[in-house]
Amino acid sequence: MRQVLVRAIGGLAVVGLIAGAAACNSDSGSDDTASGNCGYKLAFFGALTGPAANLGVNIEQGFELAINQYNEKKGSDCITVAKFDSQGDPGVAPGVARNLVADKKIIGIVGPAFSGESEAADPIFEQAGVPSISPSATRVSLSANGWKTWHRAVANDDAQGPAAGNYIKNVMKAEKVFVADDQSAYGAGLAEVVKKTLGTAVVATDKTEADGKQTDFSALVTKVVSSGATALFYGGYYQNAGLIRKALTTAGWKGTLVGGDGMKDPGLAKAAGNAAATGTIVTCPCSPPEKAGGTFVTDYKAKWNVDAGTYSDVAFDAANFMLQGIDAGNTTVEKLNTYLGATEYKGIANTYKFTPTGELDPKFIKVWAFKFDAAGNTIADQEVPAV
Amino acid sequence: MVVFAALAFLLPYVGEIPVIGPQIVTQGVDWPSALFNMSYYVLLALGLNVVVGFAGLLDLGYVGFFAVGAYTVALLTSPDSVLRTEWGWLAAVPVGLAVAMVSGLILGWPTLRLRGDYLAIVTLGFAEIIRIVATSTETLRGDRGFADIPHPPGTLADGKPMFGVADATPYYWLGLAVIILVILAVRNLDRSRVGRSWLAIREDEEAAEIMGVRTIKYKLWAFAIGAFIGGLGGVMFAGEQGFMNSGTFVLQFSILVLAGVVMGGAGNIAGAILGGALISYIPDRLRGIEDPIWHTDLFGFRFAIFGAVIIAIMIFRPQGLIPSRRRAMELKDREKEVAPIE
To answer: In what residue span(s) does the Leucine-binding protein domain sit (chain A) (predicted)?
Structure first.
């Protein structure tokens, strides 16, 4: 008898847990005020949790700031922010994307943030006809899918890689370069282009595990030191790069670590220690956020209490581009998509005009090199030619 | 049984039921997609149930077979593959399943002499090998993955493809049909001579061998059938997603499926189905729900909540949610045996 009772209580507890969670559904009814081109939603799609959340949060905050400012200007909650957390995982992305397109009030998407999830989610957006602007997915092949609603507001890896290579060759004048990558879609792709640009200057190559999967880089460090290279290009993200920089400094290597936009994060200096990270060069197909026009930098800091990160400004621009379109009366997905494809938009970070395949017009591609200073911040160094 | 199957096919429309429906469907993930995710988790749980539940072989690397199935399909169909064969999905399925089955045999053969913990370690190693090979070799493209994997064939009357990208319902129905076939097959096996041999091996391998059960043969059977079903999950996954990379096949996935089987009731088909469905459903259901204290998405706490649910189940129902009758009896017997010593 007692056992039956225990079972019943146990069963109830489990059911209660699930039902309790279900009871507080966040899905509240939305009001229908379609006056003045209002009542629509713009969506953010990318990682807000998970190992790659930093970049996703940067983008989301820039995106949300743009919409908040727009609403303040309008004096009402005109456009609603809808956030879709894909965890940056291509396995999760399709389900979340289908959920996004089911909401017919969403007429534009800023995202997906990463290339992998873009491959998985963009076909769904394409079929639903919802226009998207990715502020950070830089895989070259994405534009070869023939998607009509897809746009990216940054240069792809084919532009960033040569810029990084040129910087190593022409500015740093390094003759022996070691190239390593973290085997991620982004890191491996970028490292490949850099290798091509550097040609015979590459003395050796190596691979590491992805961020969070490896903490001991002594094998790589030994190879770098013994190769006699004066520069190490690492295709990967800031977490690993910081640890590698730290290990290299401990081993007494005097060369410079160079990386792409994935390493442009204060997290690198945190992982390496500010002293070790000083002088590390990162390239980015973006303008320095402090050079961003208007009051963006101060507004961002006031709103989120952190400095604007990589791609925050591009996401801000992408959102504003769409808001400008909505303001002009393009309130269906078809009209907004046509608008995005036909308009040249001058934002705070760059001027945007999309080619028919959704790429940024080559004449607006900018690649900058940044240097870590002694305080662990990235300081704009110079613009580098991306050819 | 038939009623259950019919109801399962109607699940995509459960949201239409007033009052109860909205409580069941997922908020943050499209409901048919969540159902499809459940369907391949259930397939995995069914397959692992054969290995762990029936034959009693602790396999921690089960997702390896899922990966083998998915990767074979990707290699044969995707334009990114070095093979450049670009077959249709359907043509690649039998190859994927065969390769998964053979990999089950290859893993099973040398590990047959191992038991318990040792077997668990070797299978763990197998899963890691698969993951590292997938991440590091050029052919398997690591994190870059394979794009444009074709969907299952078939067109509707209006000329649209039956298996599109916008709606996951057809994939769920396909998954469900596969699950039903697998259930029928596994149930028949369990009730046959093979099933009785598995039972004997699970209870006492030496005794079984002395009584004339060919343990090697039947353990290999269990491995191969488990691998086959795991591969089925993999080919379904590849066909629905259209894109896959090495990020999917993490160790955590293997452990999750094992947790599902144990939670549902190892050795019982209904239990494995329930467990498999729950491990996929609970995290998906938590998505898009705001927690009352921090006002963040409850999804962020999924593993904490999940852990609490598993602990609760293990305390109140150690034999699993729907236990195998024999297992439950055994647990009872052992309680009696232990009692006098206390």
So the answer is: 40-356
* Domain residue limits at A245: 158-284+368-383
Q: Is A384 helix (H, G, I), strand (E, B) or coil?
A: coil
- Do the chains contact at B145 and A18, CB–CB below 8 Å? no
Closest residue in B to A118 (Cα–Cα): B243
Q: Are residues A217 and A248 in the same domain?
A: yes
Contacts of B299 in chain A (CB under 8 A): 49, 85
Q: Does any domain span residue A97?
A: yes
Count: domains in chain A:
2
Cβ within 8 Å, pair A96-B315: no
Q: In terms of domains, do A185 and A264 share one?
A: yes
Both A259 and A296 in a single domain?
no
Q: Print burial letters for B125-148: b (CB count within 10 Å at least 16), e (below 16).
A: ebbeebbeebbeeeebbbbbbbbb
d(CA B321, CA A13): 13
CB contact under 8 A, B243 and A98: no
Task: Say how far apart CA B202 and CA B33 lie, in whole Å.
Answer: 36
- Give the mutation candidate from A7, A15, A83, A96 for the B interface (greatest B CB count, under 10 A): A96
How many CB pairs (< 8 A) connect A and B?
Answer: 149
pLDDT tens, position by position, A166-210: 899 989 999 999 999 988 778 888 898 999 999 899 999 998 887
Q: Nearest-CA distance from B184 to chain A in Å?
A: 29
Do residue A295 and residue A271 come from a single domain? Answer: no
In a domain, A117, yes or no: yes
d(CA A290, CA A293): 8
Residue A182 and residue A144 share a domain = no
Q: In 3D, which of B318, B297, B316, B298 has the Cα closest to residue B306?
A: B298
Q: Which residue of A has its CA nearest to B288?
A: A26
3-state DSSP percent of chain A in helix, strand and coil, to 5: 50, 15, 35
* Residue B226: C-alpha distances to residues A83, B61, B63, B101, B194 (Å): 39, 11, 11, 8, 14
| CB contact (8 A) between residue A183 and residue B34 | no
Q: Is there a domain that residue A197 lies in?
A: yes
Q: Residue A77 has what pLDDT? A: 87
Nearest to B29 by CA among B245, B277, B242, B280: B280
Q: Give the CATH number, domain containing residue A265.
A: 3.40.50.2300
Where is average pLDDT lowest: A178-187, A332-341, A369-378, B108-117?
B108-117
- Say what the pLDDT of residue B61 is: 87
- Residues A301 and A259 both lie in one domain: no
Interface test with A, best of B243, B282, B306 (most A CBs within 10 A): B243
Compute the 3-state secondary structure of chain B and give helix, strand, coil in percent, each to the nearest 5. Answer: 70, 0, 25
- DSSP structural state of residue B20: T
Same-domain pairing of A117 and A70? yes
Question: HEC states along A65-121?
Answer: HHHHHHHHHHCCCCEEEEEEECCCCCCCHHHHHHHHHHCCCEEEEECCCCHHHHHHH
User: CB A22 to CB B24 under 8 A?
Assistant: yes
Same domain? For A239 and A373 the reply is: yes
Q: CA A325, CA B162: separation in Å to the nearest integer?
A: 35
Best probe of the A interface among B40, B143, B241, B294, by most A CBs < 10 A, is B143
User: Residue A246: inside a domain, yes or no?
Assistant: yes
pTM: 0.83
